[in-house]
Amino acid sequence: MIGIAALWISVLLIGGGVALDRVLSAAITRNFDDGMNYVLTAMIAASEIGPDGEVLFNRELADQRFLEPNSGLYYQISAPGHEDWRSRSLWDRALKAPADHRDRQLHVYDSRQFPGEDLRIMERTVILPGSNTRWLFMVAQAREGLDAQIRTLRSTLFKSFALLAIGLFVLASLQTFYGLRPLRKVRLAIARMRRGEASRVTEPMPAEVLPMVEELNALLSHNERQAEEARTHAGNLAHALKTPLTVIMNAATAQAPDLGEAVIREATTMRRQVDHHLARARAVGRRGAAQSRAEVWESLTAVERAVQRLYPDARIDMDGDKAAAVRVERQDLDEMLGNLIENAAKYGGGSVFATVGRAAGIVEILVEDDGMGIPEAERVRIFDRGVRLDSGKPGTGLGLAIVRDVAEIYGGTVTLEESEDLGGLLVRLRLPTA
């Protein structure tokens, strides 16, 4: 940032300095030429033709430098066939009249015809009254004074712009240093968190850095929640597997006659527990994916075909918004809908109705059946792992628990109600729209 600022400051100051130098140098030169033009005009106004046909001044020129030899201010009047009339300041020198001057326009140019003395010459061709001769009036002045003024100007400009550049460089450096200082504070805060001395960035920050700090703290909170969820999942899985393993160990130690049945029964329970916790872990890992998206109707159709093969006597109807999509991975959505529709087909009276709707950023999926339903007092407890109200049919009591856990991971909810149309259970699954 400092390098880029220094580069642009240098470019702008150099460009501005060169432009200002040209403007002011041209103004000084123009003022210098105006003085010479005044003298030339006064010479022409005071000139007349004498009795011998030569040019004479009817009044003396006011500038005394014309009378001082080598004073730096000279004039000369020339014409073909006439002797040059020169100022006394020229002494034994003469100005070289250009051979290509044929018009009456004012000409100004620089000349080095005098050794060690640069001249600026202004000339004009004039025809005076009473004569047809073309007289060349020339005024020359040493450039020493003009060049000294330009040198002084350039020196002043260089010093001023150099001082301005140094000031701007220092200000840009200070602005960068103090502007980035909050980032160094954030780096130190992160280092303290890595050493375990702090858990959040709590120092006051400027408004420009505060959003980044808030996002950083939010990320830390998110990671802590994921770590806590991972620990909870590991603990729950260990607890869930502990009892079946104990049963198997006891049966094996006692050499029970039903050891094979016990192993199969407890292994099935263990498999369901592992599937449940793997589903949670998979959903937690996918939750942060911003591209998570699943078409609800496609998932419902696939689940309906699979459940229909398992329960061919059940009738499954679907209706609602076919374009609805949720911010959930397709595999997780299939698992949630599969558990809900399979439960409705298994425990219902043979009719299942699924409805899809959208409202205020939420996709709502209703799954109804015509079974016995669930008493209101049991609708909270039924979500606990392993709880079953109908033990006469195969199952592990983990289906609704999986639906609840995966839905909450994605920011959704699942509730149980009574179906007004079919009279059985109504499951209301709400998920964020994609």
Automatic annotation (TrEMBL):
It comes from the Bacteria. It is found in: Membrane. One of its GO terms (molecular function) is phosphorelay sensor kinase activity. It catalyses: ATP + protein L-histidine = ADP + protein N-phospho-L-histidine. It is an enzyme of class 2 (transferase). Residues 236-434 form the Histidine kinase domain. Gene3D superfamilies: 1.10.287.130, Histidine kinase-like ATPase, C-terminal domain. Keywords: Kinase, Membrane, Phosphoprotein, Transferase, Transmembrane, Transmembrane helix, Two-component regulatory system. Residues 177-228 form the HAMP domain. PANTHER family: SENSOR HISTIDINE KINASE TRCS (PTHR45436:SF5), SENSOR HISTIDINE KINASE YKOH (PTHR45436). This is histidine kinase. It comes from Sphingobium amiense.
